[in-house]
Amino acid sequence: MTHPQHLILTGDRPTGPLHLGHYVGSLRQRVELQTKHPQFILIADLQGLTDNGSQPEKIANNVLEVMADYLAVGIDPQQTTICLQSALPALAELTMLYMNIVTVSRVERNPTVKNEIQQKGFSRSLPTGFLVYPISQAADITAFGADLVPVGDDQLPMIEQTNEIVHKMNGLLKTPVLRHCKALLSTTGRLPGIDGSAKMSKSLGNTLTLSASEQEIHQAVSAMYTDPQHLRVSDPGNIEGNVVFTYLDAFHPDSEKVAAMKEHYQRGGLGDRQCKNELEACLQTLVAPIRERRQQLIADKEMLMGLLKHGSEKAHLHTQKTLHAIKRGLGLPVMF
Amino acid sequence: MTHPQHLILTGDRPTGPLHLGHYVGSLRQRVELQTKHPQFILIADLQGLTDNGSQPEKIANNVLEVMADYLAVGIDPQQTTICLQSALPALAELTMLYMNIVTVSRVERNPTVKNEIQQKGFSRSLPTGFLVYPISQAADITAFGADLVPVGDDQLPMIEQTNEIVHKMNGLLKTPVLRHCKALLSTTGRLPGIDGSAKMSKSLGNTLTLSASEQEIHQAVSAMYTDPQHLRVSDPGNIEGNVVFTYLDAFHPDSEKVAAMKEHYQRGGLGDRQCKNELEACLQTLVAPIRERRQQLIADKEMLMGLLKHGSEKAHLHTQKTLHAIKRGLGLPVMF
């Protein structure tokens, strides 16, 4: 198959509205990338169900929330195709085909899956869908013919497994169909929770969503973890593990100013309150227009669903081409 | 969903042309059943790939062979809908959804899968597709809304697992969508190979296909395992494990005559040659018209593919209804 020079696939599991961690880690980057390369964003509802199989409403209710988040931060459906995983049968069909060339022991060895199984405490109650989700993710990436996949470094084993499948499946065909891909590593690390814990998570109550109110932002920044040893303004302060500075690094538009503040804080004489004021101002400025757009967007679910349907139709045509090429390559009839 | 009073789903993995074991064990029954109930026959190419992932041509090349077998034995596409598994995206999509509500340990405990993993010598090289094939089979059965599934008793754990999935999935929906099913157990046991081994298998060279020539039938019956202690015609003979009598039971239209022959053989005075002549005559009569029809049918692959496509289109509409009802029940959008 012929492919465009570069094509990006990225996406999110719709388990809740997106938060500032998503903004820093991926959304901001997508807004930039959409002007450079063809970009597909997949709302991965099927993948969301792999560990929420018994509470499908949690996934179903968040599909349009995530859609609203995308549009609110500036993802432009004219430039980026936003689509729904469960609307694209090629993804399920390719997963079925790939499952036959990947052994159980290979998916069990995938480090990302191993970690997540442990984190989620699955052990013997592991859903089969969760075990095979690297294969499903390989189906997603290859169905779109994506060669650039923005991920965190914890997801590198997924890219490796995808390329293994590409290699093996292409080897079964007279002419190769699938495209190898590579990770587009995020330049910023994972944003910690406002309490300083490594992971932002709604259930831990340490996130700020993209629709956080002025008051919520104020409270979150006020309560933010700093340097517990920094008791007086005149004391030298520590910026390592100091969430306020991590957030200033992530969100403040003026990196020179942040560098000067860090220096001042470490030397002594810069108070937490002042740093927090600086951070709050910058978060309020960032979130206010997103919140406002998001409010308007979420009020019109019909429009959101219309856009998602439009993108999914386009993605359907696109992914069916890969499925048909694979089927033909394997000698299976393509009927309709 | 509303269902017809009864609906039958049955099928075969297209790993080779069908043989007399299939005829006795299932094909004959299907020809009868098609006049009584709506019946779908699924050519299970995807399932065939679960343990032939690296030799897809073995599956692809046999799809129309099996189609020809069906028509040659009298399966009537006006009465029975014959369709291709890989042509029906609903089956893959439902499999993906069901995988999230079935644990890995549950499929590993499935006795049929456990046995087959051992038989096929998979151990650590078990393809994930093979591990989850009970879930895929549950998707097949439920997508069609089949309540009657003709199987051998070795397949009963599959029916049990399907009903577990039906129960669990229906429990997640406001109103139940999926239908429970039951096994329609074959009245005849598994036909042994002509060499007396329990399993007929092309690789063992102990089968007779539905297109066996007169000469092949003659040779097979001549070489057939009887009672190795039955040296002289006048000796009493043993009919236990005597393949000639097993085949006479399975194929001879006159059961009283077979009973009399058995009695005579056990008493002594009935020679193997005479029994074999009786069997050969009855097999030649059975196979001759099937072979002839099959020759004509396989010569027109375009016609065979046309019929398979027509059946698959009908099955597609049918199975999409179930998929859409499940998606709506889970709250997922149904877009196109």
What is the fold's blueprint, element by element?
Two copies of one chain form a homodimer.
Chain A lengths: L7 E5 L7 H14 L5 E5 L1 H5 L6 H5 L2 H11 L6 E5 L4 H11 L4 H6 L1 H9 L8 H4 L1 H12 L3 E4 L4 H16 L10 E4 L28 H9 L20 H9 L3 H13 L4 H27 L2 H30 L6
Parallel strand pairs in A: 1-2, 2-3, 4-5
Short description, anyone?
Helix content of chain A is 54%, strand content 7%. Chain A is mainly alpha-helical. Chain A folds into two domains: 8-192 and 301-330, Rossmann fold (3-Layer(aba) Sandwich), CATH 3.40.50; 211-295, Tyrosyl-Transfer RNA Synthetase (Orthogonal Bundle).
Summarize the helix and strand pattern of chain A as letters. EHEHHHEHHHHHEHEHHHHH
How is the largest sheet of chain A built, in terms of strand order? Answer: 1-2-3
Measured between the Cα atoms of the first and last residue of chain A, the distance is 19 Å
Strand runs of chain A, count: 5
| Oligomeric state | homodimer
Mean pLDDT across all amino acids of chain A:
95
- Rounded to the nearest angstrom, the radius of gyration of chain A is 22 Å
The percent of residues in helical segments of chain A reads: 40-55%
What class would the helix/strand composition of chain A place it in?
Answer: mainly alpha
Shape of chain A: elongated
The appropriate CATH architecture of the largest domain in chain A is 3-Layer(aba) Sandwich
The proportion of strand residues of chain A reads 5-15%
Number of domains of chain A: 2
Largest sheet of chain A, described in full?
3 strands, parallel
The CATH class of the largest domain in chain A is identified as Alpha Beta
The CATH superfamily of the largest domain in chain A is identified as HUPs
Which two chains touch over the largest interface?
Answer: A-B, 57 and 57 residues
- Examine the coordinates and then state which fold CATH places here, giving the name of the CATH topology of the largest domain in chain A: Rossmann fold
Task: Report the total helices of chain A.
Answer: 15
Low-pLDDT sequence parts of chain A: none
